[in-house]
Amino acid sequence: LETGTLSIVVLGASGDLAKKKTFPALFHLYKQELLPPNEVHIFGYARSKISDDELRNKLRSYLVPEKGASPKQLDDVEKFLQLIKYVSGPYDSEDGFRLLDKEISEHEYLKNSKEGSSRRLFYLALPPSVYPSVCKMIKTCCMNKSDLSGWTRVVVEKPFGRDLESAEELSNQIGELFEEPQIYRIDHYLGKELVQNMLVLRFANRFFLPLWNRDNIDNVQIVFREDFGTDGRGGYFDQYGIIRDIIQNHLLQVLCLVAMEKPVSLKPEHIRDEKVKVLESVVPIRDDEVVLGQYEGYRDDPTVPDDSNTPTFATAILRIHNERWEGVPFIMKAGKALNSRKAEIRVQFKDVPGDIFRSKKQGRNEFVIRLQPSEAIYMKFTVKQPGLEMSAVQSELDLSYGQRYQGITIPEAYERLILDTIRGDQQHFVRRDELKASWEIFTPLLHKIDRGELKPIPYKPGSRGPAEADELLEKAGYVQTHGYIWIPPTL
Ligand code: BG6
User: Fold this and answer.
1) What pTM did the predictor assign?
2) Position in ligand 1 atom list of the atom nearest CA 250
3) Cα atoms in the 13 Å half-sphere on the side-chain side of 408
4) CB-based contact 92:45 (threshold 8 Å)
5) CB of 218 within 8 A of CB of 350?
6) For ligand 1, is residue 245 a contact (CB within 6 Å)?
7) How confident is the model at residue 65 (pLDDT cuts 50, 70, 90)?
8) Which of 226, 238, 243, 344 to mutate to test the pocket of ligand 1 (most atoms within 8 A of CB)?
9) Is residue 156 within 8 Å of 174, Cβ to Cβ?
10) DSSP 186-246
11) Residue 377 phi, psi dihedral angles, 5° rounding
12) What is the mean pLDDT of residues 46-57?
């Protein structure tokens, strides 16, 4: 295990992402003693000229539990806040970063034993437009000083570009400054418990091995729904739209884990090699296999142009051209301002051949992985209706986490991923060639939307989205089960 000083620098320290995700994740790690106070120092860096205490005051309310904090919890928050120091400066001038380096070095000097290492983690909670200049500054002014056991790593967040060309440009700029093992591209869906479980489910269970292919599976849905709109993020969102915000990254990463071949081992490079292969097997998306939507009222946001063509909803069918998946539609669906909030993977199996129970009426077998909320894995299958009659009915085998794993807190995605960056494990991060392949899939479609050649269909906020999307689903072969719904167990 590595020891020595660890300096975590959060750039964009007072921004939304830092306040809502990065600092709370660091705090959780701290509480679990994964960030030992005698080794760790946290730095916030941003442009505004505020004091250490002013930053701490801004962060406090994001760390204190909403409902009645105990004195111990309040005490933990204060101790954690004391680990944070603030440095202010611009994102493109050496002065600020030299000052930052000085602060980090002082801390390293104070805390280091003779052979202690210098570990420096830079978390860019910033808009990507400043990534190149910030990376340049880090490289020029702030690299770790001890060569032997130290390191410098940078963590970047999406959006990594707007299309293939801009993403490649960004990758080149960062790639000139840092080696791939130093770059951690976060896709927080890869930190979710049930996304991480995909590998285990698929490759550690005899059940699934022979079934997981085009002979048995009819279609796969990967779905993200939110029951709120862009909520004050309209300005950002309108530049990107739902495909860049959710599908090209989060849902596509999930698709990789559902569809990839078994990796040679669990080594990060082996896993990522397989993901790239799947992405490279995806054929161009057809216009008639896409339905776009925009919720009514989206343009009322003053930061959104009145004639915005940006989709807030999309269903797109991806097709994988390989031996395992030829002919199986992967239906990617994401939308804002819908009637519910959930994310799930739904694998629907083909009908039973030569059916004698007329179970078709009951619906098909489905294997559902509910990523959130209320994590669960359940299988819909047909059983005899209990009672005197010999009739079939749909039921389920249900592994609901809240019930099965009582008392276990499922870690937040960011918490897990930040820990990985400290440990140097890139398994759950997006490699450069993966990123490129994912942009290759969506760029032609995105350009058509940008040029106004494809238009979103209006839908009512709080609805299922455009009816055309359900029609596309049906056309793709998905058969909805009527009369059965899974009721999550209550504790
Ligand atoms: C972010 C998107 O990446 O993911 C947001 O930019 C979205 O638009 C969020 O709301 C959803 O994350 P989660 O973890 O709540 O599903």
Assistant:
1) 0.95
2) 3
3) 12
4) no
5) yes
6) yes
7) confident
8) 226
9) yes
10) E-GGGGSHHHHHHHHHHHS-TTTTTTSSTTTEEEEEEEEE-SS--TT-HHHHHHHHHIIII
11) -130, 125
12) 95
